[in-house]
Amino acid sequence: MQRGIEFLGSEHAILCGAMSWVSERNLVSAISNAGGFGVIACGAMTPELLDAEIAATKALTSRPFGVNLITMHPGLFDLIAICARHQIGHVVLAGGIPPKGSIEALKEAGAKTICIPPTLALAKKYLRSGADALVIEGMEAGGHIGPVSTSVLAQEILPELSGDHLVFVAGGIGRGDMIASYLEMGASGVQLGTRFACATESIAHPDFKKAFFRANARDAVASVQVDPRLPVIPVRALKNKGTEEFTAKQVEVAKLLDEGKVDMGEAQLQIEHFWAGALRRAVIGGDVENGSLMAGQSVGMVTSEEPVAQIIAALMEECEAALARR
Ligand SMILES: Cc1cc2nc3c(=O)[nH]c(=O)nc-3n(C[C@H](O)[C@H](O)[C@H](O)COP(=O)(O)O)c2cc1C
């Protein structure tokens, strides 16, 4: 983990991946205070809201934390300016190819850029474009996912790139034994989301947490795409009425597309807004029936509410024990 620790400035190279609505001031500061690396999920926040969230997080921790920006946010460069003003050290660019000038703007602001490539070719491209580190995230993860599993991405990308570059592995990690394996393969550290979503310090609604504690790996299913003309990025979430509604929403938007009432960009935006609204309903409102319970397959290993420090300590202990057994 040493390279990852030096890069992040944290005690352990364990990132808590940004989770929209969940990764706000409380969880982010708790993660960083416990020696991990917290990341604020900017999601669809306005620059003013991000400004306030960063300031509030800084009030709760003096340790380093990062900010996750979605590349298709219409105000991406304004958000980068907010990060620059707060001298945020690390920015994760998620949700697709970073637009021209974004990595340069972050560099100018003195921030390190972390990108999330879905393939080896894109990983190389992002590094050529100036990315300082990569997170490779497999389809076991919660939230928006790619089509390839973490184990295959790790085999494709770590041997090729981890010698000269910082690569963190995400998706499906629930125990320290798995962390040990990825470190052995060359990873500089790991990123977890699902395992931290229900920590004591997480503001997620008690019913959202209960749904996680009850769920098994097989309950965390990837959404299906109903219309080949309307490519939607799959989302992994616990199955409920909300996942069915998403299928209905796609049919509705595809019809609008057919009738020429919306263009492709607008259609995809409507889909993304659906997710953002549904996730808020579940995380904040506790509507576990109709809301979106984004969760990874590691959800089966989340069985009770634990303080972040306890989760990190358990992961590190399991990791060390696994390495000692070797
Ligand atoms: C509820 C939830 C919301 C998420 N929201 C985001 C997000 O806004 N941006 C992002 O880059 N990743 C998001 N993710 C992915 C996490 O940052 C992280 O990479 C992922 O959870 C790691 O896999 P795991 O869930 O198997 O631990 C989300 C994941 C979950 C579970």
Automatic annotation (TrEMBL):
<keyword id="KW-0503">Monooxygenase</keyword>
<dbReference type="InterPro" id="IPR013785">
    <property type="entry name" value="Aldolase_TIM"/>
</dbReference>
<dbReference type="InterPro" id="IPR004136">
    <property type="entry name" value="NMO"/>
</dbReference>
<keyword id="KW-0285">Flavoprotein</keyword>
<protein>
    <submittedName>
        <fullName>Nitronate monooxygenase</fullName>
        <ecNumber>1.13.12.-</ecNumber>
    </submittedName>
</protein>
<dbReference type="Pfam" id="PF03060">
    <property type="entry name" value="NMO"/>
</dbReference>
<dbReference type="GO" id="GO:0004497">
    <property type="term" value="F:monooxygenase activity"/>
</dbReference>
<keyword id="KW-0560">Oxidoreductase</keyword>
<keyword id="KW-0288">FMN</keyword>
